[in-house]
Amino acid sequence: MRKILVLRGGALGDFIVTLPALVLLRERWPDARIELAGNATAAQLARSRGLLDAVHSQHEARWAALFSALPAPFEAWLREFDLILNFWPDAEGDLARKFPLRPDQLFLSASALPTETPAAAHYAEALGPLGIAPRGSYCLLESGRVVLAPSQSPAARTGQTIALHPGSGSARKNWPLDQWAEICRWLRETHHAELLIITGEAEPATALADFGRPARNLPLESLVAELSRCRLFLGHDSGVSHLAAACGVPSILLFGSTDPAMWAPPATHVRVLRRGSELKAITVDDVKAVIGLA
Description:
With 294 residues, this protein is an alpha/beta fold.
C-alpha cells in the first residue's frame, strides 16, 4: 500500500478508540501515506506521533459528494488511494457504491457504531481482510509515539494533582454537580489534594471553579501535558476520560446508562464505578471508597 484514506467521524473519544486500528495500519505499512478524514482536532494527536501524514476535517463541504455525485477533481484525488477504510455511517450503501474507483483500489467498510466490545476491538477487527490480526484494545500516548496494548500498567504517579472532568457530551452521562463539589471538598480537606478542574464547551465555565486550578478549553496537547502530570483522574464516559487513560493516568470513571464493557478504556489502570443505569444511584461514599483504593 502506498496511500491509505481512513474515514472516521465523531468526537474525541470516538477517535481515541480508533487509535489501535491506526497503529496496526502503520505497523503493517510503515512507509505508506496515511490520511484521515474526521475529527481534525483529535486526529492531530495521531499525526504528531507519526500515525497519520495528513488530516482532513469531517466538516469540509466536499465530503458530502461521497453520497451524491463526485466532482471530477475530487474523484481524481480519491482515485490515488490504494485503500479506503470507511468507518462513516453508510446505512443505505451510497458511499460503498462509489468504490472502487479503479480496478486495484480496495474499499473496506465497517459499522460506524461498534458491535464488538470493547469499542476499539470493533475497528481493529475491520482490518482482518488485510491480513492484519487485531491485538490490544487501547493505546498509550507517549512522547513522539503511540504504544499499543502495553504488557503492564503505567508506572505509579508521584504528583499531588488530581484531575476531575465533571462533564461529558450528554447530560445523562453526568453525575450531579453538587456531588462532585462534595468530593472536591473532601479531597482538599482530607487528602490536601491539588485539583485540576477540566471543562470544555459542554460544561459551565463556573463548574467546580472554586475548588481548583481551571483547565478550560485547553488545546489537546496542552491537556495531554497536564494529565500526564496527574496522579489520579475522575470522570464520566467521555472523550476526556479516554484521553486520561491514554495518558496513563490511574482513572476512576462513573458510568450509568452507557455500557462500560463497550465504552470504558479496557486498561488495568482504569476502574469503573457503576450502580445500574442511573448515575444518581452512585453515592458520594461510593466514590470516596473507590478513591481510597486507588
